[in-house]
């Protein structure tokens, strides 16, 4: 009895201990949830914190709090298919009433709108089978097939679900009844539709069709349309399958390029849209992909509006996506309220730089679609205030505003805007700014105002006053009198004389006279002791005389046009190929700051310089993440200053040196193509030779990216190259005959130096001319002369040196 009592007491104590432990765990979870909720109240865009909060409420079985957490999460971010299915399964567990089941249907609708997922559609259909009628389930499956039925690798799962549904429905009817025959026709139509779509498992589907078709009574259905669609689809699948194989084994960094090539190969619009939907699931944070998607479906109103909304939800910071969204709303003529809402949200969310281009896009829209000039002026003022001078150093917004004011006749306001621009320290000495101001005044204002601008500019511009003087003189020649021209010349002459003195004090600004070369030639001919001082004195005296006589001509004020490369960053020492790209064909005037504008996410940019500090036209860009590096690679051949910049993966030094070498002998597996129209791109050449399966095509281009009309097409074997050469000739492109031949570069000339007799350089003395030898050249022969003898051997015959008497006799011909 005592033992029994002790055992029961132990059980009670252990159960009480477990309850205490459970209470402690629950309190700890509640504290964690409270702490995480406070973080979200400060910043609701913490993705991982949302997930942690949901998991905590799931452990606590607090379904109401979990539902609220899901709703907050959904408002901030698009949810992945996995998260949606977890949420829906949690809701299914507690759904008992008709109203709760309808909420689950609405959750499924929201889930399929975020991302393309075959699994979500199948779960949606299966839930419908158990809770609704067959018509509702068919409708859901048809929607799923419209969205994901063209998914080459997973679409067959949806088609199989529909066929199984129709097969199950067929078993409900009596054989040979009208309902049964009608259902047979419906099932045949499903087979026909499925087998006309290129899917990876379509051969298995075709075998199922064959087995089922043979079991039917003869003459009941026609198999011709099914067979025809299958043959066409299986042929198309051969084109898609290489890309599907690459997608299976590809890294995340390779996906964008593979999908881009895949989409370029596909011609069907619906399949392209499906490919974009497949791509945005793993690459949802790649703005370039969303940009491509929006451009492709820009004219499809319903599609582009949904895609634009999803794009900015995934990449909220991307300015190009907000611009694309704004332009899509305008193109499809949505209300001004929707456009204003888009603009206000974009201004808040675009980061890290202020939305300069987004402001431009909105101002363009308002300028095109509104007559309210006062509100437009107010928007310009807001733009200038929000963007700030540091983010718009060239005053692009203000300059455009001034032009619009001038066009509508409000030159007074336009002058005030330009006064603010010119008063800025950076623009005060800028020739371009002054000339733009003068041209605007000349086009819309008064000639006297233009004269005043030129007068101010002549004193303000220290680097290129000659340009201001030339433009002012041209103005007076066009509109002025003789007196105006003479005053202009006098004023310019005095200012340019001052500019000459300024150029001598500042080494960055070089000033030349027309007679500099003549002076340098005279100095070479004069005695170095006297010319060093005397010529300098005469040079200065000559300069003073010219100033006095007003006969001083400027050749041009030259400012070195070589781009200065400030130390934007230290040279990249540890170059990681995963986060660093190699850039080449950079224009000499491009510096690191220019590249920074193109790649704002770059951690470090380094342009390689030579010993003189000039750009060698190549460099390196380092990023923090591999995704940013892949985004940069996608911008290969983007033009900067009129020259396409080549962006490629970083390779080791050995691979870079051995990556390409010009052949020195015949390349039997490579074709040389000459005479292509310069408008043809690499893609055009690929289309010409596509059917012959080349492994590589290289189009020769100039530094500015323009084609030279020459290409090399490489094949695996020489036999393939010979076969292609026979089949493709004669080749014409745009009615232009193209030369195609086996690549046979000219052999490299041997680097053998021919024998040259050693001639001693004539000696120079300090104050004498070149000392020439007095001996005639005909006598400058070797002391040893080779002479042939009768037996074929060569013997050396030594001759004694000639005396003065011998030379005298030779000259006198004795």
TrEMBL record:
Gene3D superfamilies xref list: 3.30.70.330, Tetratricopeptide repeat domain
Keywords, comma-separated and alphabetical: mRNA processing, mRNA splicing, Nucleus, Repeat, RNA-binding
Location within or outside the cell: Nucleus
Compositional bias of kind Basic and acidic residues: 510-530, 537-565, 749-764
All residue ranges annotated as the RRM domain in the record: 579-652, 669-745
Segments crossing the lipid bilayer: none
GO cellular component: nucleus
This protein's record includes keyword Cell cycle: no
GO terms, biological process: mRNA processing; RNA splicing
A single GO molecular function term of this UniProt record: RNA binding
Principal place of residence: nucleus
Segments for region (Disordered): 1-20, 506-576, 741-773, 792-814
Domain of life: Eukaryota
Database matches in PANTHER family: PRE-MRNA PROCESSING PROTEIN PRP39-RELATED, RRM DOMAIN-CONTAINING PROTEIN
Name assigned to this protein: RRM domain-containing protein
Organism encoding this protein: Diabrotica balteata
Lineage, highest ranks first: Eukaryota, Metazoa, Ecdysozoa, Arthropoda, Hexapoda
């Amino acid at each position: 009895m005592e033992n029994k009592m002790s055992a029961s007491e132990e059980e009670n104590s252990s159960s009480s201990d477990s309850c205490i432990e459970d209470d402690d765990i629950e309190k700890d979870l509640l504290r964690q949830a409270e702490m995480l909720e406070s973080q979200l109240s400060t910043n609701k865009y913490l993705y991982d914190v949302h997930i942690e909060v949901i998991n905590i409420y799931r452990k606590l079985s607090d379904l109401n709090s979990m539902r609220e957490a899901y709703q907050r999460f959904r408002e901030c971010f698009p949810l992945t298919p996995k998260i949606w299915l977890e949420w829906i399964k949690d809701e299914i567990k507690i759904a008992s009433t008709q109203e709760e089941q309808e909420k689950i249907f609405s959750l499924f609708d929201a889930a399929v709108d975020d991302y393309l997922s075959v699994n979500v559609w199948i779960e949606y259909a299966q839930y419908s089978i158990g809770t609704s009628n067959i018509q509702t389930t068919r409708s859901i499956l048809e929607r799923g097939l419209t969205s994901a039925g063209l998914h080459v690798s997973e679409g067959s799962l949806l088609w199989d679900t529909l066929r199984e549904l129709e097969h199950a429905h067929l078993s409900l009817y009596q054989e040979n009844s009208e309902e049964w025959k009608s259902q047979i026709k419906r099932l045949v139509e499903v087979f026909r539709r499925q087998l006309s779509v290129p899917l990876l498992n379509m051969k298995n589907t075709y075998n199922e069709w064959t087995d089922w078709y043979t079991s039917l009574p003869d003459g009941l259905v026609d198999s011709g349309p099914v067979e025809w669609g299958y043959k066409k689809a299986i042929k198309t699948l051969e084109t898609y399958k290489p890309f599907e194989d690459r997608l299976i084994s590809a890294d995340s960094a390779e996906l964008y390029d593979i999908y881009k090539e895949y989409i370029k190969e596909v011609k069907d619009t619906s399949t392209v849209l499906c490919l974009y939907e497949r791509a945005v699931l793993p690459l949802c944070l790649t703005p370039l992909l969303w940009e491509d998607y929006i451009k492709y479906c820009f004219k499809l109103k319903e599609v582009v509006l949904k895609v634009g909304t999803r794009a900015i939800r995934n990449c909220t910071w991307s300015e190009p996506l907000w611009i694309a969204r704004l332009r899509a709303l305008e193109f499809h003529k949505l209300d001004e309220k929707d456009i204003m809402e888009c603009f206000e949200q974009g201004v808040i969310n675009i980061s890290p730089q202020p939305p300069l281009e987004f402001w431009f896009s909105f101002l363009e829209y308002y300028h095109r679609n509104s007559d309210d000039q006062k509100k437009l002026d107010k928007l310009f003022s807001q733009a200038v205030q929000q963007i700030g001078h540091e983010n718009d150093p060239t005053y692009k917004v203000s300059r455009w505003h001034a032009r619009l004011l001038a066009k509508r006749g409000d030159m007074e306001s336009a002058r005030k805007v330009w006064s603010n621009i010119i008063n800025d320290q950076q623009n005060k000495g800028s020739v371009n700014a002054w000339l733009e101001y003068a041209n605007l005044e000349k086009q819309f204002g008064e000639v006297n105002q233009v004269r005043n601008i030129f007068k101010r500019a002549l004193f303000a511009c220290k680097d290129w006053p000659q340009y201001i003087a030339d433009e002012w003189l041209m103005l007076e020649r066009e509109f002025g009198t003789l007196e105006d021209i003479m005053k202009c010349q006098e004023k310019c002459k005095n200012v340019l004389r001052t500019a000459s003195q300024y150029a001598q004090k500042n080494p960055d600004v070089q000033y030349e006279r027309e007679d500099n070369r003549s002076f340098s030639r005279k100095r070479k001919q004069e005695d170095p002791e006297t010319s060093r001082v005397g010529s300098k004195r005469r040079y200065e005296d000559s300069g003073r005389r010219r100033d006095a006589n007003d006969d001083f001509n400027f050749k041009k004020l030259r400012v070195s046009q070589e781009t200065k490369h400030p130390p934007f960053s230290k040279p990249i020492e540890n170059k990681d190929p995963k986060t660093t790209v190699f850039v080449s064909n950079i224009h000499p005037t491009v510096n690191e700051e220019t590249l920074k504008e193109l790649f704002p996410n770059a951690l470090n940019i380094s342009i390689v310089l030579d010993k003189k500090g000039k750009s060698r036209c190549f460099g390196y860009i380092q990023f923090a993440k591999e995704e940013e590096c892949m985004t940069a690679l996608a911008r290969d051949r983007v033009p900067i200053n009129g020259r396409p910049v080549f962006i490629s993966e970083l390779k080791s030094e050995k691979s870079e040196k051995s990556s390409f070498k010009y052949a020195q002998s015949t390349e039997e597996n490579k074709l040389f193509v000459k005479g292509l129209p310069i408008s043809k791109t690499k893609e055009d050449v690929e289309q010409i030779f596509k059917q012959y399966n080349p492994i590589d095509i290289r189009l020769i281009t100039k530094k500015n990216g323009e084609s030279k009309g020459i290409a090399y097409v490489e094949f695996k074997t020489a036999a393939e190259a010979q076969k292609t050469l026979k089949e493709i000739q004669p080749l014409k492109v745009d009615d232009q005959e193209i030369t195609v031949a086996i690549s046979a570069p000219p052999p490299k000339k041997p680097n053998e130096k021919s024998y040259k007799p050693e001639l001693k350089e004539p000696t120079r003395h300090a104050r004498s001319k070149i000392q020439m030898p007095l001996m005639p050249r005909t006598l400058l022969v070797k002391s040893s002369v080779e002479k042939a003898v009768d037996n074929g051997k060569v013997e050396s015959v030594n001759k004694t040196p000639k005396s003065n008497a011998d030379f005298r006799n030779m000259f006198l011909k004795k």
